[in-house]
Structure formats: C-alpha cells, structure tokens
Design brief:
Oligomer: single chain
Helix content: under 10%
Strand content: over 45%
Shape: globular
Number of strands: 5
Distance between the termini: 39 Å
Strand order of the largest sheet: 1-2-3-5-4
C-alpha cells in the first residue's frame, strides 16, 4: 500500500513523441498554455523530456503518457507509461 501512495504522487505528463532515434529512449514534447498576467493573451510553451521506452514501442507522432522516475541516465528522469494514440 505504501508503494501505491508514492507512485500516485509522481508527476505525470501527456505529450507527443518528437524523436525515437535512440535505443530505448524517446524525446517527448509536452505543451502547456497559460494566460499572460498583464496582457490576457494565451502564451503557449513547450518542454522536451527524455523518457525511457523499454520495448521501443513509441514512434514519432505518438501521444504518450510519461511518469517521473529515478534518474536512469544523465538526461532521462521519465519513463513511458502508456501509448495513448498512435500516429497516423
């Protein structure tokens, strides 16, 4: 039960795979929108995460859910939980 509590507190993001060139690693771009505090315009920003993909299932254009995990390499701190939608 303690394991479920810690897993539920990990950060989860949904994004699009922009690169699958490396073995067992994908680059996922996560976008977000926020209102500008002064000008009330929508400001869109994106962040790229390197995520571990054990089975090499995810490909460019796929929408995936990633979860925070322990450091797996210099840049990888996320892992692919599931593939939500395949690229067409």
């Amino acid at each position: 039960m303690a394991d479920e509590t810690t897993r539920n507190s990990r950060k989860v993001r949904v994004g699009v795979v922009v690169s699958d060139a490396r073995d067992k690693t994908v680059t996922v771009e996560v976008g977000r929108s926020a209102g500008h505090p002064r000008y009330d315009k929508v400001v869109r920003t994106s962040t790229k995460f390197h995520a571990h993909d054990e089975a090499n299932d995810a490909h460019v254009g796929d929408t995936v859910r990633i979860m925070e995990t322990r450091p797996l390499s210099k840049q990888k701190r996320w892992r692919v939980v599931e593939i939500l939608e395949r690229a067409r």
